[in-house]
Design goal:
Number of strands: 0
Structural class: mainly alpha
Helix content: over 70%
Largest sheet: none
Strand content: under 5%
Radius of gyration: 18 Å
Oligomer: single chain
Number of helices: 9
Shape: flat
């Protein structure tokens, strides 16, 4: 029973962390141009193009850290080594192939791909060793949609982006309403 309770906690930790990070990544990806223009001088404005990929990559890295619990609980760190190695080698090969032609945009995209591979392999091995319902499919679909929407609306007017952002935020809150209720209830118990 304790094991099931722990797995339920991992579900909540993973989903809350993932949603918060994905919303941050989505927001910075969608408003990247505006954020960069507020933070730097014009010479660096073009860096907004890679912000989305770098933010989503860091979100995937954080997710893989949580998902890897099963690997470490079972003391099978070799699987973590496999995930990191395969992701790193893929990233390196893609960098060698794509950076000469596509530059910094390719570097950001290959970093994103590398972290996504790391997450996928970590999840695969962790589930084999310590099965836990993380709700990864729903998080995967939401990640994909947020990424695509932030890509498609990157160059749109601020007002259009804001309507899209409010819609996506509302959709995520609706999809995770039960999780939000439990989180609010938990916070109230602490006070």
């Amino acid at each position: 029973h304790e094991d099931q309770s722990a797995k339920e906690q991992y579900y909540y930790i993973f989903n809350i962390t993932s949603i918060v990070l994905l919303l941050i990544s989505f927001t910075t990806g969608l408003y990247g141009k505006e954020i960069i223009s507020l933070m730097t001088e014009k010479a660096y404005l073009s860096s907004y193009r890679i912000l989305r990929d770098m933010m989503f990559a860091q979100s995937f890295y954080a997710m893989s850290t949580i998902i890897s619990y099963g690997i470490f609980f079972e003391k099978k760190s070799v699987y973590s080594l496999i995930a990191v190695s395969f992701a790193s080698i893929t990233n390196l090969l893609l960098n060698l192939a794509l950076i000469p032609k596509y530059g910094i945009d390719a570097a950001a995209a290959t970093t994103l791909i590398g972290y996504l591979i790391h997450l996928t392999i970590s999840y695969y091995y962790s589930e084999r060793l310590y099965p836990c319902n993380y709700g990864i499919k729903r998080i995967g679909v939401i990640s994909f949609l947020m990424y695509i929407i932030s890509l498609l609306f990157l160059e749109k007017a601020f007002l259009i982006k804001t309507f899209v952002w409010v819609f996506v935020l509302g959709l995520v809150f609706y999809l995770y309403r039960n999780l939000l209720y439990k989180l609010i209830s938990f916070i109230r118990q602490l006070t």
